[in-house]
Amino acid sequence: MANISIIGSGTWGMALSLLLYHNGHKVKVWSALPEEVEMLREKREHKNLPGVPIPEDMEITGDLEASVKGADLLVLSVPSVFTRSTAGKMRPYVAEGQIIVNVAKGIEEKTLMILSEQISEEVPQANVAVLSGPSHAEEVGRGIPTTCVVGAKDKETAEYIQNCFMSRVFRVYTSPDMLGIELGGSLKNVIALAAGVADGLGYGDNTKAALITRGMAEITRLALKMGAHMETMYGLSGIGDLIVTCASMHSRNRRAGILIGQGKTMEEAMEEVQMVVEGVYSAKAAAALADKYGVEMPITKEINKVLFEGKRAADAVEDLMLRDKGIEHPGIPWEK
Predict the structure, then answer these.
(1) Which of 154, 172, 232, 319 pairs with 47 at a CA distance of 20 to 30 A?
(2) What are the tens digits of pLDDT across the range 129-154?
(3) How far, in Å, CA of 107 to CA of 285, rounded?
């Protein structure tokens, strides 16, 4: 049994806290919001996980110092826009070599840093890892079979986290490619917004398949240019996470995209979804990375125009369809 603290009491953090609790660990959940601490203590249920009870002996607290000190494993599960600031608050309490596994997905717009890089910068004494994959909190919280991948700098850390999370309903693989895992998890949210926009416009399965496939192509181009591995992009945190995020109504990115496709502004869509839409925050960073590394990412560029420049969604789709003719795989030689 390990002492595990979940830093962040959102839907994903609570789903993982329940998984880890049922795995036999002693679990403590921290929230920055006093009203949320009170609500979870009293109701013993998260508003986005109705019908999933929080065990009475799972501690809910607003004391960050007590949550960090002495924990065998820290699971950082705050929205990506709060990752850096939360890590900075944790820094005074984190011991040398203490493991922080990040489970959020995003890229910092200002620095273009992935989340593990931000955490390492804020908490240099920590041993930072990442957990990602096709894993909607609504399903994990209910014990529906799910598979993820954990990335770390060393095999021992990855296997320790794997052992903590592994269960009969939650299968975990390990990988040394932290960069690829995080890029796949972040960039797929941008493509999922585009897939949702297509749904909102009333387009069909053909369009969705094209967006997933070509979206994966541009994610992979960028990831490889940045130093990630091809195998990761066609694994759980790459194509696996992209498929589920583009196809499921659990996906807040897809739901926001649907609303935008139906004519709502980005701000109106985010307000209606009532949860953090990570793709909106990653979209500008993804476009900036494409420019920095000289990588063609047309879907990403068009969704940015829809989100931030007021371009009509239907016009963006038409412009994508009418781009210059191309070869699907330029590296495959012709016989003649």
Answers:
(1) 172
(2) 999 999 999 999 999 999 999 999 99
(3) 6
User: Residue 25 and residue 21: Cα distance in Å, rounded?
Assistant: 5
> Counting every residue, how long is the chain?
336
Query: pTM for the whole thing?
Result: 0.93
Active site residue 89: no
Asked if 258 and 199 touch (Cβ cutoff 8 Å), the reply is yes
Asked if residue 152 lies in contact with residue 174, where contact means CB atoms within 8 angstroms, the answer is yes
Helix (H, G, I), strand (E, B) or coil at 209: helix
Per-residue tokens: 231: 């195998």
DSSP annotation of 277: -
Contact 170, 149 (CB under 8 A): no
Winning range, highest mean pLDDT, from 48-52, 100-104, 192-196? 100-104
DSSP state of 107: B
Given 28, 105, 188, 301, which residue is catalytic? 188
